[in-house]
Amino acid sequence: MSARERFDHEIQAIQNDFIELCNRSIETLENSFEALFQKNLEQAQQVIIQDVEINRMEEAINDRVIKLMTRQQPVATDLRRLIVLLKAASDMERVGDHAVNIAKEAIRIGNERFITSVELLEDMCYKSTEMLRQVVEAFVEENMSKAKEIAEYDDEIDEMYGDMIKHLMQLSSVVPENISQITYLSFICRFVERCADHATNIAEYLLYLKKGQRFDLNH
Amino acid sequence: MVELMIKNEKAKATIKTPSPMTSEHIQTVEKNTVVQTKGFNLWYGDHHALKDINLDIKENEVTAIIGPSGCGKSTYIKALNRMVELVPIVKTNGEINYRGRNILDPSYEVEELRTKVGMVFQKPNPFPKSIYDNIAYGPRIHGIKNKKILDEIVEKSLRGAAIWDEVKDRLNQNAYGLSGGQQQRICIARCLAIEPDVILMDEPTSALDPISTLKVEELVQELKDNYSIIIVTHNMQQAARISDKTAFFLNGEVVEFDQTDKIFSTPRDKRTEDYISGRFG
């Protein structure tokens, strides 16, 4: 194997690690949603525990990228790819953190019944995981048009987030005795909305990787 | 209230004052072209070694020439001071204009050209003479005999090449006694002694250790304030570190010539990207 082939091989290996991190983070996020909606507190605990592994995976990617940068001194697309992997891994690790935050809120809500319909929140959760899955697909395929479509999803989620928060604020004056759960649900909405932002960031990184220019897809 | 109005008036006045030149403005000012190569071709016998070269070298900039072995980069810089003519089978056409005058014109005195366009080679090549005589050699050829003036030139050139402090107490010792890195800086000082306008450097650090390389690189950065520098290098990181513009040569052609930042981050041509990323060459 030539030096260049070894370099390509190592970049591919880091990219595979990144995809594995993505899958793990998305799965953990889905588990946190399930724990919330099905009031499965045991599962919520598991989400918190699983985050340790997600953090470890991100650190391993960082170490591999730094090592490769030091040894190979990459330029142009190679350099952009490594920087993008470093940044995208950080975004995916944050998705794992949001899953933990949601799991903690689920534990706080406990077995209390929801004081309002959470259908819109469920939709938000579904859309955000869909967005994350699609951005991973776009990344693997290096599909720029798919990356741009993801930004449109983000606008929808932002709108849903706005509606949900408005609804919860109104509710706080109607049932002030339930302010705790209203606060927990508001936080959860925020965490879900942030996950969608991370997906948009990764879509932006993909465009940067391909074009060498920065794009702002999150308007 | 009155005071507030005054403040507002002052603020308005401040806004109306034209803003001073920022570094951004200064960067947009186009520098003068010192060497302009127009449709230049060169043959070694039947071998077409340089094909239709068009390059504008700007004043007070470092221009790096990169490319695989045999791409014509050394031939190109040797054409800039007509050293390439020492090879008898060389034929050329096109133009190389130094400060607006075609150096390929037979009426152009080669001695005059080489006074203005100095050269530093891959391997340090001091003369087997004292450090002092190495530097004073060029000025003496140009007729300077006055010891005081020569002393001044020697000191100024050695300072300019960032080696004065290392050799000032042993100017009469043979230059061969210096380390490779010091010898190379002596050669640069020797080049500065004739007060050139352009300095050509053909892989000037390829025979040096990393510390000496760093010193020469720092020197290049300092020299560009007063000289225009064209450097051929096989070391891609060196080109990225020290040059303002980079030209990528391949098979005798200029594939891409642009700002160094652009070449090493987002090159336009796939062949440039493949070369700088180590995919061939």
TrEMBL record, chain A:
<dbReference type="InterPro" id="IPR026022">
    <property type="entry name" value="PhoU_dom"/>
</dbReference>
<feature type="domain" description="PhoU">
    <location>
        <begin position="20"/>
        <end position="105"/>
    </location>
</feature>
<comment type="similarity">
    <text>Belongs to the PhoU family.</text>
</comment>
<keyword id="KW-0963">Cytoplasm</keyword>
<protein>
    <recommendedName>
        <fullName>Phosphate-specific transport system accessory protein PhoU</fullName>
    </recommendedName>
</protein>
<dbReference type="InterPro" id="IPR028366">
    <property type="entry name" value="PhoU"/>
</dbReference>
<keyword id="KW-0592">Phosphate transport</keyword>
<dbReference type="Pfam" id="PF01895">
    <property type="entry name" value="PhoU"/>
</dbReference>
<dbReference type="InterPro" id="IPR038078">
    <property type="entry name" value="PhoU-like_sf"/>
</dbReference>
<comment type="subunit">
    <text>Homodimer.</text>
</comment>
<feature type="domain" description="PhoU">
    <location>
        <begin position="121"/>
        <end position="205"/>
    </location>
</feature>
<comment type="function">
    <text>Plays a role in the regulation of phosphate uptake.</text>
</comment>
<keyword id="KW-0813">Transport</keyword>
